[in-house]
Specification:
- 42% of the residues lie in helices and 21% in strands.
- Helix 1 links the parallel strand 1 and strand 2.
């Protein structure tokens, strides 16, 4: 089963994706911010990352993408 990581600072959006993707039989992990998202993205079992780009936090949207690419260049 594919594992999908959803990174979004809005709980409603995280819950929506969690429910939708689980109903399609995906294993879903969620993160409320870019720091937690990067930590979870390092998990080698993650197959896909879906992320909000307009989150407040320690990393800007561009920095988040760069860090995710650095951690997991193999993930779309």
């Amino acid at each position: 089963m594919a594992k999908i990581l959803v990174i979004d600072d809005e709980e409603l959006i995280r819950n929506y994706f969690r429910h939708l993707l689980r109903s399609l039989n995906y294993d879903v992990m969620v993160a409320p911010n870019s720091v937690d998202g990067c930590r979870l993205a390092a998990d080698p079992s993650v197959n896909l990352i879906i992320s909000d780009l307009n989150m407040e936090g320690e990393l800007s949207d561009v920095d988040l993408i760069r860090e995710l690419r650095r951690l997991r260049p193999d993930i779309p």
